[in-house]
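Recap from last week: sequence in, structure out.
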Amino acid sequence: MSNETKPAPIRIDFVSDVTCPWCAIGLTALEQALANLGDEVTAEIHFQPFELNPHMAPEGEDATEHLANKYGSTPEEIAINRESIRARGASMGFEFRMDLRKRFYNTFDAHRLLHWAELEGRQMPLKHALLRAYFTDGEDVSAHDTLVRLAGEVGLDVARAREILSGNTYADEVRAQEKFFMDRGIHSVPATIINDRHLISGGQPPEAFEQALRQIAASPQR
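Predicted structure tokens:
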């Protein structure tokens, strides 16, 4: 047997929101890059909270109206952008159903649940479930019934999930994490931070993540 010790896992903080399409694309690309790297890299992914619309009302807002008001986009521009996102996702195996994604929602409670899921070792499957529920199935990811159901589907205790959502559990922790990353210059997502030092911005293709991770893994300073 070799006496060589394997290097410590690379820490990846993936700052994102569950209603951000480029976050879904970026995560898919990151996971494909890690799969391509195989045993070259061992990584631990931690999902960090970011709210695209922190002041969104509980009932949400029509998606087309929201994009027009926030970015000044025309209906034609919105349609072109949606098709671009759909095609990019399809090329990587992620299904966007933009015809079902009718509204934007407040995502703070989803982030509270993700914080708890990390403590329970189920953050990754819950993140996938939330992205699929919103972008593929067109579900309301602010609705507590939806969140509780998704928690149960990934093996979390549904009674505890409902208890968390009914109060303010983990609200302070989520706010603190949001502030931590915003104070460090993260004002758009996805933002992939590797070993607290290296930032990859945006929904990059798998090749970009693969190249960066290989270089970082080979660096003595990591």
